[in-house]
Design brief:
alpha/beta; CBS-domain; 15 helices; elongated
Length: about 350
């Protein structure tokens, strides 16, 4: 027997407490048809999975084909407003909205997510007059969104709506409505949000990337927002790695004896020593490898100038750590001098980078 879905419909001619019951077949895509249970056959399950993916692909194609200048108008509103972009949505739309807010915040647009139900209980205070509200609802009729939308209308706060139904309450309340095409959900009952949530996520990513491009948001700025993890560390500058008080690199003058060079390398614990001219500028570098190679020669009378590499690989403090790692990897060197105004600031050793997680 098919399942019976009922909706409450108030009768205006009767007592307000009396309601009529009516089938909910009016919901788009919904069906009470009894579907056979999917076979445990791996081929059948794989075919069903491919069908879901195909429906998602078709939904994204429809979204791309139907995109108009509303996204550009939404971007201009956001860019013209000094305050935050506040994202809200209920249920699955809320989960997607949280991800969209996180993407926006990490790519140059000040944004955060607020649950619409919490707004009705005091968090409407987060909606200052200089903010913009990005409200997400597939149907556009989520009850929890009504209070924030009415508040924004009263306070003159622009709303950007993201919905499949531009004539809904959300669509009518929006300064700009980002309308998604009405396509079938991958859910066999037409109920669980699937293709609709994917389109919402894709449209949110498109909005974030266009805003990112309009702001000229750079990889360096991205790194400032992502100091953690290998990606964030690779985008940090060498100066960030050094810190505000880097230990002075081991140095010797050109005239230092071989014994003094070895002693300086040992004390510096970086496997290398910077060799300086009389004015303190960099003349070269002596590494552990240079010391080992020197033992094949007569050590008497050898100086730093005799065993150093006169043109060492160097990097500036404002370069990315990823550039430093690439330079060391490509040249197969374990130590790299950080130099500014031709003067050594620090020595980077590959073992330090491995220990800190910069190199795996």
């Amino acid at each position: 027997m098919g399942r019976l879905f009922l909706a409450l419909q108030q009768s205006p001619e009767r007592d307000p407490a009396i309601v009529n019951l009516r089938p909910m077949r009016h919901i788009a895509g919904m069906t009470d048809e009894v579907r056979p249970v999917l076979s445990a056959d791996p081929a059948a399950m794989t075919a069903r999975a491919r069908e879901v993916i195909r429906l998602n692909i078709e939904a994204l194609r429809a979204l791309e084909a139907g995109l108009d200048d509303s996204l550009a108008r939404a971007c201009e509103i956001i860019l013209s407003r000094p305050g935050y972009l506040v994202v809200t949505g209920m249920g699955k739309s809320g989960h997607i909205g949280g991800k969209i807010a996180a993407t926006l915040a990490s790519t140059g647009t000040n944004a955060f997510f607020v649950h619409p139900a919490e707004m009705s209980h005091g968090d409407l205070g987060m909606l200052r007059k200089d903010v913009t509200l990005l409200a997400i609802s597939n149907s556009g009729e989520s009850r929890e969104l009504r209070d924030p939308l009415i508040y924004c209308q009263r306070e003159g706060i622009p709303v950007i709506g993201l919905t499949q139904r531009p004539n809904s309450f959300l669509g009518r309340s929006s300064a700009v409505c980002l309308t998604m095409p009405q396509v079938a959900e991958a859910c066999p009952n037409g109920l669980a949000p699937t293709t609709s949530t994917l389109m919402t996520l894709a449209l949110g990513d498109a909005l974030a990337m266009v805003l990112m491009d309009r702001r000229g948001f750079t990889a360096e700025a991205f790194g400032l927002h992502h100091p953690g993890g290998k990606l964030g560390m690779s985008l940090q500058s060498v100066r960030d790695w050094m810190g505000d008080r880097p230990p002075a690199p081991a140095t010797v003058p050109l005239t230092a004896t071989f014994a003094e060079v070895v002693s300086a390398i040992t004390e510096g614990r970086k496997g290398a020593v910077a060799v300086l001219n009389g004015d303190g500028t960099l003349a070269g570098i002596v590494t552990d490898g240079d010391v080992r190679r020197a033992f094949s020669r007569d050590l008497s009378g050898l100086t730093a100038a005799d065993v150093m590499s006169p043109r060492p690989k160097v990097i500036g403090p404002d370069a990315r750590m990823s550039d430093a790692i690439d330079l060391m990897t490509q040249n197969k060197i374990a130590t790299l001098l950080v130099v500014e105004d031709d003067r050594p600031l620090a020595i980077v050793h590959i073992a330090e980078l491995m220990q800190a997680g910069y190199v795996s």
